[in-house]
Amino acid sequence: MNFFKQWGNFMMLGARAHAQWEIDVSNTILGSKKRLAVLGLLIIPVILGGFAFADQLGVALPEFLGGKTAYSPAFFTTGIFIASILIGIGAGLITGCIGAGGGFIIAPALMSAGIKGILAVGTDLFHIFAKAIMGSVIHRKLGNISVALAVIFLIGAMIGATTGGVINRVIYDINPLLSDVFITVIYVLMLGILGAYSLYDFLKARKAPDAGGGAHGGKSEGADLGNLPRKLQAMNIPPMITFDQGIVPGGRKISALFLVLSGGLVGFCASIMGVGGGFLTFPIFVYVLGVSSLTTVGTDIFQIVFTAGYAAISQYAIYGFIFYTLAMGMLLGSLLGIQVGAMATKVVKGITIRGFYAMAVLAGFTNRFFALPSKLASIDLIPLSKETGRWLDLIGIWSFFIVISTFAIWVISTFLMNIKKLKGEEAIS
3-7, 74-78, 118-122: which has the minimum mean pLDDT? Predict the structure, then answer.
């Protein structure tokens, strides 16, 4: 039980940190005409290219994207593009309103729509990379970046990303159905732990005296160190990397070995799951390596650009496992959703937000959990009739989209009903 709470809290802290990065990026992109122009330049060729590609081949969108041959740059239909925008809006609303990673719903949503798991992962990675490049706020955080930490960490991240990408592709080459099973199992485990902890966190918060307060809580890590960081920093395994010189006299030191191992884990998760890397970096840096939160934020922003870019391009793009039209649609939708969600938090109680987050994560878990039996049956691991598998799939799909749609409608309606109040707050501020 104690392990569950520690791991769940670890993942929740990471989800919130990654969400804050998403919000900062969204604000940076939408606040700059130049960045909006770059966004337009990225999207227009993808849309026109999709039309031309599909028209030239004279083919319709297949029931499943991928198969043994992935499609690049993209098969395009207006319906697919609109669906990708809606998925992005849903993820953005969760990120902006709840302050925790809405990206967890992207892969389940894409796979429920018939996208192969490996294509969903590659597309999600590219969407994160495109967002990171356009909305990079590194220039604002340069004073908080430890270049030495970042470079050593990235060595491990690239090794991990390569390993994760190779594993995904090898499994896919053996059997595309086995690839879907593998990715589904990973999401079942991840969303199951995070969803259970989110529900526990919500029920615990309801009993607390300040249950109506904000959703983001948590203490800021500065000069204090926990037991694990102390032990790791006490191990003198050369080369030793110095950091946080501006926070503690003389700075702190940690072995490059631990940085490489940490980077390897982050890169591996990013390449396997798409969203995984971004939400692991913050808790690993702060609670495992003992890096201050100020240095962590800047270094995390720096590494996301390179880790997501390297994994997306070297492990998926060059093999054709990215659906560019979907990626751009999700990017557009998430930028809009994050803004609406973030403004809605000003008129919504924190305890309500926690409850909705638990529901959203558990909906993603339910979606992948009910999809798993038919996928296991497809590779003859369990006996299951096609009809039973189809009904289980439908239960997972409908429960997922009903919960996410209900949440989206609630947030948007709350925003619209309080728009005058929100405008008044902006005018005062």
Answer: 74-78
Q: How far apart are the first and last CA of the chain?
A: 44
Q: Span 171-193, mean pLDDT?
A: 88
Compute the distance between CA of residue 170 and CA of residue 335 in angstroms, rounded to an integer.
34
Question: What does residue 268 show for φ and ψ, rounded to 5 degrees?
Answer: -65, -50
Tokens at 167, concatenated: 């594993």
Q: Is 124 exposed, middle or buried (0-12, 13-18, 19+ CB in 10 A)?
A: buried
Give the residue-averaged pLDDT of 189-204: 83
pTM of the model: 0.81
Give the integer Cα–Cα distance in Å for 8 and 359. 15
Is 68 or 287 the better-scoring residue by pLDDT?
A: 287
Q: Rounded to the nearest 10 degrees, what angle do helices 293-310 and 256-273 cross at?
A: 50
User: Which residue in 309, 25, 352 sits closest to 157, CA to CA?
Assistant: 309
252 pairs with which residues across the strands?
243
Q: For 367-409, what is each residue's pLDDT tens digit?
A: 999 999 998 998 888 888 889 989 999 999 999 889 888 888 8
Instruction: Assess whether pLDDT exceeds 50 at residue 191.
Output: yes
CA distances to 39, 105, 408 from 102, rounded to whole Å, are 21, 6, 12
Instruction: Find all residues with CB under 8 Å of 5, minimum gap 6, and list them.
Output: 197, 200
